[in-house]
Design goal:
This protein has 568 residues and is mainly alpha-helical. It contains 22 helices and no strands. The chain has helices at residues 2-37, 49-61, 63-73, 75-95, 99-114, 117-127, 134-161, 164-183, 196-214, 217-220, 241-259, 270-275, 279-297, 310-330, 344-374, 380-391, 393-404, 410-428, 439-465, 472-507, 512-516, 524-559. Helix 7 packs across helix 19 (439-465), helix 15 (344-374) packs antiparallel against helix 19 and helix 16 packs across helix 19 (439-465).
Length: 568
C-alpha cells in the first residue's frame, strides 16, 4: 500500500513537472501576441526578452532556497506550495496588461515551475533505495524533457481555439488541480489545512489584484464601484483603492504565515524554518545567480557575449558570491550545510551537469538554425521539425538510462552516453548544405538526443547516493542550477567561437562585384558563399559542443565512482 501511494505521488509530481516544463516552451508561439498586448511591435523583439529571461530568472535564482526548504519542511508541502505559486504566476500573466505585469507573472511562474524539481528528486531518494532509483529518476527526466516537444503543440492547440491569455488561465487551473490532488498524499496526521485564515487572506488578496489587472467594464463604469478603480495618486492602476486593499490583504497574509503556529499547507511554523535556514546567505546566492543569468540571458549573441550591463552585473555577482561564501563559513545553519557536498561523486555530478548544459544548448538553439540556413530558409515549422528528431530521443534515453542503471554503474554509463552525444556533434561539425537531406542526419540527431537522455538518471542517482538524506532537496537544486547556468554560459561561449569562424569565412568571400560582375546583389554565387560562411559558424559551434560533452564524459568517468551510500 505504501509503495502504491508513493507511485501515485510520483505520478502527480511527474505530471506537474511535465506541465511546468511545457510552459517553458509554450510561450514561444504566444510571444508575438503577448508583445502586442504589451504595446510592443516586431521591431521591439529585444524589449520583449524579459518575458523569456524573467521566467528563467525565477526558475533558477531561488532554486537552492526552495531545495533547502524542502529538506526542512517536507517534500509534499513544498511541491504543493510551488504549484500554488505557479498558478498565481499564471493568473498574473493571463491578466497582464503591460510588459511589467507580464514579466512579473512569468517570474513567479518560473519560481513555482523550477521549484517542483528538487523536492521531486528528493522524494524519489526518500522513497526508493539507491539500487532501485534509476527507473523513477529516468521517468522524471523523460517527462521533463518531453515538455520541450509537448509545449509548442499544447500552445498551438490552445491558440487554434482561443487567445494567449487562455494558455495561462488553463495553467492556473491545472496547477491548482494538481495541488489539490497532492494534499491527499500528505500523512494522515497532517491532512488538515493548517490555516483557514491564511486561505481567506490569500484569496482576498488575489481577487483584488486580479480585478486591478482585468479592470472589468461592468465594475469600472459603475457609479459606485468605479470609484475603486480611480487612482488615489497619479494615473497608475496600482495606486487605486482596490489595489491598496489588495496590498493590505497580502501583507496580512505574509504576517499570518510568519507567525501562525500551523501555517497554510504546513505543520511547522515559518519562524522555525527561518531559524534553521540562512536567509541572508540564500539572498546573497539569489542575487549572484540573478546577476549571472541577466548577464548572459540579456545578451545579444550577434553583437557580444555579455549583456551591455555586464560591467555592473558581474561585479554585483562577484560581491554577492563572496558574501554567500562568507556567510557559509560563519552562519550557524548555512544554506549549504558544511561537509554536505564533499564526496567526489556529489560535486562531480554538479560539474558534469554544468558541461552537459553547455553542450545541450548548442543542439536546442543551433539545430533549427542550421535547418533554416540549409533546407528551410522560409519555413520555421520545418526547421522546428528537424529539432524534433533530436528531442524525441531525449525522453527515450532518459527511461532507458534509468533501466540500465540497474546493470551499469553511474560513471561508465554517463561517460558512454556523453561520448555518444559528443561523437554525434563531431559529425554535425562536418555537415554541409545538403546534410539534412540524408537519412543519416536523422540517425545522428537521434543518437545525440539519446546520449543526453541516457545521462539524466545516472547523474541524478550519483548525486543522491552520495549526499545525506537531509540535503537531498538542496543537492538536487544545485544540480539543476549547474545545468541551467551551463546552458547560459555555454551558448554565449559557443556563439563567440561560431562568430569568429563566420567572420573568418566571410572575409574570404569575394565581393558581389567580383562574383557577379557588379550586375546584381541577388547573385546566387554570393548568396551561397554567405550561406557557407554561416554553415562554418555552426560547424564551429557543434565542434565546441562536442568538446563540452567529452569534458563531461571524462568528469563522469573520474568522479562518479561508487562509494558508501548514506543511510536514512
Amino acid at each position: 500500500m505504501k509503495e502504491l501511494a508513493s507511485r501515485g505521488l510520483l505520478a502527480l509530481a511527474a505530471v506537474a513537472i511535465g506541465f511546468a516544463a511545457a510552459d517553458t516552451y509554450v510561450v514561444v508561439l504566444a510571444l508575438p501576441d503577448m508583445m502586442t498586448a504589451a504595446g510592443l511591435t516586431v521591431a521591439d523583439l529585444q524589449k520583449a526578452a524579459p518575458i523569456i529571461s524573467g521566467f528563467l530568472l525565477g526558475y533558477v535564482a531561488v532554486l537552492p532556497l526552495i531545495g533547502r526548504v524542502s529538506d526542512l519542511r517536507g517534500r509534499v508541502p513544498v511541491l504543493t506550495g510551488c504549484l500554488v505559486v505557479f498558478a498565481i504566476g499564471s493568473v498574473i500573466t493571463a491578466a497582464g496588461y503591460d510588459l511589467p505585469t507580464i514579466v512579473l507573472g512569468r517570474l513567479i511562474q518560473g519560481i513555482g515551475g523550477g521549484g517542483l524539481i528538487p523536492p521531486t528528486l528528493a522524494l524519489i531518494a526518500d522513497t526508493w533505495p539507491a539500487e532501485r532509483r534509476g527507473m523513477p529518476l529516468g521517468i522524471i527526466g523523460a517527462v521533463q524533457e518531453l515538455g520541450s516537444v509537448v509545449g509548442p503543440l499544447w500552445g498551438a492547440a490552445i491558440l487554434a481555439f482561443g487567445t494567449w491569455h487562455d494558455i495561462f488561465w488553463l495553467n492556473a487551473a491545472v496547477g491548482l488541480a494538481i495541488a489539490a490532488a497532492l494534499l491527499r498524499h500528505r500523512p494522515a496526521e497532517r491532512t488538515r489545512v493548517g490555516d483557514l485564515w491564511g486561505v481567506a487572506l490569500a484569496l482576498a488578496a488575489s481577487a483584488c489584484l486580479v480585478l486591478v489587472m482585468l479592470e472589468p467594464e461592468s465594475l469600472t463604469t459603475g457609479v459606485t464601484s468605479g470609484l475603486a478603480f480611480l487612482p488615489v495618486v497619479g494615473e497608475s492602476r496600482w495606486l487605486t483603492p482596490l489595489a491598496l486593499v489588495g496590498y493590505a490583504f497580502l501583507v496580512a497574509f505574509v504576517v499570518r504565515q510568519a507567525t501562525a503556529a500551523r501555517p497554510l499547507l504546513g505543520w511547522r511554523s515559518w519562524g522555525e524554518i527561518a531559524r534553521e535556514t540562512d536567509l541572508w546567505g540564500a539572498a546573497a546566492l539569489t542575487v549572484a545567480l540573478g546577476a549571472v543569468i541577466l548577464t548572459f540571458a540579456s545578451a545579444e549573441p550577434e553583437k557580444a557575449v555579455l549583456a551591455e550591463d555586464a560591467v555592473i552585473l558581474l561585479p554585483i555577482a562577484a560581491v554577492a558570491l563572496a558574501a554567500f561564501v562568507w556567510r557559509g563559513r560563519r552562519a550557524a545553519h548555512p544554506l549549504i550545510p558544511r561537509g554536505s557536498l564533499t564526496a567526489t561523486p556529489a560535486w562531480g555530478s554538479i560539474a558534469v551537469s554544468f558541461f552537459v548544459g553547455a553542450a545541450l544548448i548548442a543542439a536546442l538553439v543551433d539545430i533549427p538554425f542550421f535547418a533554416r540556413l540549409t533546407i528551410a530558409p522560409d519555413d520555421q515549422l520545418e526547421a522546428a521539425l528537424v529539432l524534433v528528431r533530436f528531442l524525441v530521443a531525449l525522453p527515450v534515453g532518459a527511461v532507458l538510462g534509468g533501466w540500465l542503471l540497474r546493470h551499469v554503474s553511474a560513471g561508465p554509463l554517463t561517460a558512454g552516453a556523453l561520448i555518444l552525444s559528443g561523437a554525434s556533434f563531431l559529425v554535425m561539425g562536418t555537415w554541409d548544405a545538403s546534410a539534412l537531406e540524408s537519412v543519416s542526419s536523422t540517425v545522428v540527431l537521434a543518437a545525440c538526443g539519446l546520449g543526453f537522455g541516457l545521462a539524466i538518471a545516472p547523474v541524478n542517482a550519483a548525486l543522491l547516493e552520495h549526499t545525506a538524506p537531509d540535503v537531498h532537496g538542496l543537492a538536487s537544486a544545485l544540480l539543476v542550477v549547474a545545468r541551467m547556468v551551463g546552458m547560459l554560459i555555454g551558448i554565449s561561449a559557443l556563439t563567440t567561437v561560431g562568430l569568429r569562424a563566420f567572420h573568418s569565412a566571410a572575409a574570404k568571400v569575394p565581393s558581389v562585384e567580383e562574383l557577379c560582375g557588379g550586375s546584381s546583389t541577388a547573385c546566387g554565387a554570393y548568396t551561397d558563399a554567405l550561406r557557407d560562411a554561416g554553415i562554418a559558424q555552426l560547424q564551429a559551434v557543434f565542434t565546441g559542443a562536442a568538446v563540452a560533452a567529452f569534458i563531461a564524459a571524462a568528469l563522469a568517468l573520474l568522479t562518479l565512482r561508487r562509494r558508501a551510500t548514506f543511510s536514512a
